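For practice. Supply one:
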Amino acid sequence: MAHQDSQWITQWLSTPRWEPFLHAAHQDGEAALALYEWNISVAMAFLHDASHAEVLLRNSYNTVLERWWLGDQHWLIDPKSPVNAPLHRMRDGVQIDSNDKNRQSIAEALRRNHTKHVSPGALVAELPFGFWRHLTDAAHEQLLWIPALHKAFEPHTRRKEVEQHLARINRVRNRAAHNEPFISSRRRREAIHAFRSILKVEELLNPRVTRHTTATSTLLWTIENPPTPLEPLCE
């Protein structure tokens, strides 16, 4: 592909986004474009698998929290709920409210619905993956994990283990959603590790979902079959 023939690509993708693929393809424009398409396939395959875990996680959390919370309103709406009430903690010598992001996420989800009376199910579906991950952090251990959320998982599941898996999934999910490159050995390895975390979280919540995800996933095959040879994967 001649330089003048590739100008449409840089106009489309921008030079900074295009150059890593061109470098990986040894300046072969056609091969670089094939790598870009492969990268999209990796991202889509990961998002497919992550979506299974996300839906399972949010529905599992909502189920146990609806049973547990006895407030006047749904646990997502009630200002006294542990996801809404101010939760002050010290971070680097500064007092922060660990529920500030939760309230922002809920408010944004309510705005997106454009209705005065949003059903709990619709609200649950609107909340981002990061919201559910945040409910599993150390700040919410006493308020949510110990009294309620641990019941969603297999007995003896550790909160910290779940949080680590969710953090790993969330990082790669965000990368995939923004179509960032997966061409380096490190990025491909991180995607594989996050896929394992997806399966682990599903196994702790509902093993049958794990089997379904394993049977329908194309992620590992896609990662292992790039159109142009890439640097070897190293554990």
Summary: The radius of gyration is 21 Å. The mean pLDDT is 94.
